Amino acid sequence: MSLRGRRGLIIGLGWCVTLAAIARVVADGGDLGPTAQPAIVTAILVVAVGQLVVVNQIGRQMAPITTAAGMGMVLTPAISGSPPMSWGLCVLLLAVPMTVGGMLSALTGRPADVFDHVCRYVGLSCAAAIARWDVGDGSVLTIVSRPEVTTLVAAFWLIGVALVGVLVDLVLWTFGRVRTLHVPVLTLIRLDLARSGAIGAMMTNGGALIAVTTPIIGPIAIPLFIWPIAIALYGLRRAGRIEATQRQLVLALSRLTDETGHTAKGHAGRVARLAKTIGEELGLSPGDLQVLFDAGLLHDVGQVTLNEPIPDGATILAAPAEQAHVNRQTIFLARQAGASDEVVEAIIGSAAQYREVREFGAVLPITARILRVANAYDDLTQGRRTARGPALERIHLGLGYEYDPAVVDALTRVTERSARSPRLG
Amino acid sequence: MGLGHPGFPLTPERAEGQPSPLGIYRRIARPEHRYAVSTRFVVAGTVLLAIASYLALRPIAGPVTDWTGLGVLILVAAAGNLPARSPSTSSRRVHISMLAALTLAAVPLGVAAGLPLLAAAHALAQAGRQAPIRVVFNAAMSVVVGMAGLLAYWSLRGPVLVEGAAAGAPVVVHIGWALLLANLLQLVVNAWLISLVQWASRAVALADQFRALILRSGLTYLATGSLSILIVTVWQIAGGGPGSIVLLLPCLVAARWALGHERAEDLMQVRVVDTLNAAIDARFPGAAAHSADVARLAEWLAEEIDLGPSRSEDLALAGALYRLDSLSTPRGVEPAPRPARALTEVDFLQGILPILEHRRDGASTSTATAGRVISVAEAYVVARRDPLIGDRYAAYDAIAGRSDLDSIILVALRRVVDRIDPLPPMVGRHRA
């Protein structure tokens, strides 16, 4: 099934859930039950507002406040003696604020992917259904309302139900996105669990704690247990800023050689882009492409330590001792900048000739071989498209000795294409 | 979180995995050995204050009504102060504890008499990794801070809950605002004690340090303390008992992780400056140590002429990077390279770019003061590190008559030199 078909299927599932909920409410005689309870009204408001506070985790838009408040609402067993809300009513009370919040989010220019909203909605609806499913001895909501069931046990029951709802959301999202990211379903699920496991645990726990404490302390339970989630979101923003600063550092270092006059303007950026393009041509994974890009940006930073600059910053034309010195200093500064081991390995390996692989069986990562070729090409062309022919000719002279033939082939293909495109060269 | 733990700087603090010792331009690296005596006085005073406050407020705390509950809180306090790996890309260790939330929760839970045990467990969790004097100070400070919270809560008639007592929304609201106000008092006491010990150990301006701590860490502190309301609600009001701490662990751990990013972000910024300094140092060995001296003195001078915490910090950063220009290659008739332009996309350095540019242009008005401060700091550092010039006063005299240096800043430098030796003799360091 195509990607669009799968996404359409899941959005259609959301519509089916809503229609089923309407049918259920009509079948119940349109009884709105305890809808006017202050706790329910508060939950509805928080669900809507939560739609405006979205975090992006590996391409997935999560609304932890909406999920926690929604879980709290659908899992609350009984308030002031009233029975729990019916499943249909629960789902409709979720649909309205989630739709309104989603629309507000879109109107205010925030990220608002309908597909992600629908996955969340279906996950919450599932949790509501499971909590009301009669398991023989009554439903979960009936069991946790019994006086002999302690608060702790009740909370664990509800955490279990909330967990199922959150997992349904995750699996649906993965099913609809798997082809976009070119990653297997299970890998995506594992990645998502690893990166958003903490926030997922907070959503399930927060929802269950809201459900357990609302009958005792009323609507105040909702903001109280949403508060730690808000703190966690603040932390995620900070984490984003830290990542941004790391990126800015790499960019600053890549520009430093330009601004100090050691390399031609834009050399590091061009090498990074070209290396990434060659990597794409050779079918490297997204992780390796990022390594290539970072290594490309950092590969020449050691030149700033030279008192006498290499002419035009072209290390390919420098003496071997000078090349080795630059490579050593680059590795030192890259490590200082917190570059990953893979990036450092690519920079180290880019100094080695390909014959070491062929003749001595040395292990040179593909990223290093690509970086060496990309750097040589830009050193020879200095960003001038007209120099493409002579540069390729020069690189072909070192084919199999200096450079990996497969990488050079890829370079030839991408530069040929770039001759027609304004972006590369 | 206790402000004392992450902020107390009796020994220069460096995150595990920091690749270089160049992060010495910061406040935390101010010379400390000359102030050891006054630091010990402050630590001893804090210990006495802890004992006195505990003895004075012990009747208010009443007996411990739930030893199991106290045990659980002690366990969480100790575990919460163990280093946690930050899941950020920098993968550095952060040190944020939940002590404020736990000490506050102890009061309505009826275990306030056990606060010294909580504080001791919290401090001892770091015993092998910190200097003993620091552990003692942190433990004593935690007791004082805890007792301040107890006093505030008691003054506000905050209820102490007993098992089985009926409680609803009004009780939660009462407990909530009493705990929040108690937390506010704790913040003030905590920040004041840290400022005092920093004043003693590094001669920082007391009021300046207090203001900076409140502004930088105040909200984080209050956010952490507010989690005590959750603990009390689930534990006592909802009847979850001590086991309910398990339910709250995801909230506590995630909040600790989230708030730990403040420090991780700070460390990331240190890494940026260290890396740039490492590049300069690789070309001109000893330049980083020289820049660190200039940065430290520039910050000191900025405080002395009352430029405010933010500007002082900018000056420290600008001082640390003032030799960035030296990375340029010599050019003839071509336009001169401007290395500072490489930093235009680094957000947190935006404030210092005009200062770095000003030093090149000499024409800016908005950054003129900052540029002059760095010039004075640089001149003094060169003089102080000259082996032919004797002590700090001789170094000052050597530059005092220079007409190219700002006389007002020179007067400020004189005040600093009179008070302390800003650049004690180097031991085992490179010379610029």
Verbal overview:
The complex is a heterodimer of chains A (425) and B (432). By secondary structure, chain A is an all-alpha fold. Chain A is 70% helix and 1% strand. In chain A, strands 1-2 form a two-stranded antiparallel sheet. In chain A, helix 1 (3-27) crosses helix 4 and helix 1 (3-27) crosses helix 5. Chain A is elongated, with a radius of gyration of 29 Å. The relative contact order of chain A is 0.08. The model of chain A has no long low-confidence stretch (mean pLDDT 85). Chain B has 432 residues and is mostly helical. A two-stranded antiparallel ribbon of chain B has the order 1-2. In chain B, helix 2 (36-61) runs parallel beside helix 6 (132-155), helix 7 (169-202) runs antiparallel to helix 8 and helix 7 crosses helix 9. Chain B starts with a helix and ends in a 13-residue tail after the last helix. Chains A and B meet through helix 7, helix 8, helix 9 and helix 12 of A and helix 7, helix 9 and helix 10 of B.
H and E order of chain B: HHHEEHHHHHHHHHHHHH
Task: Give the CA-CA distance, first to last residue of chain A.
Answer: 38 Å
Q: Tell the overall outline of chain A.
A: elongated
Overall spatial form of chain B: elongated
| Low confidence ranges of chain A | none
How large is the radius of gyration of chain B? 25 Å
| Class derived from helix and strand content of chain A | mainly alpha
Number of strands of chain A: 2
Provide the spatial order of strands within the biggest beta sheet of chain B: 1-2
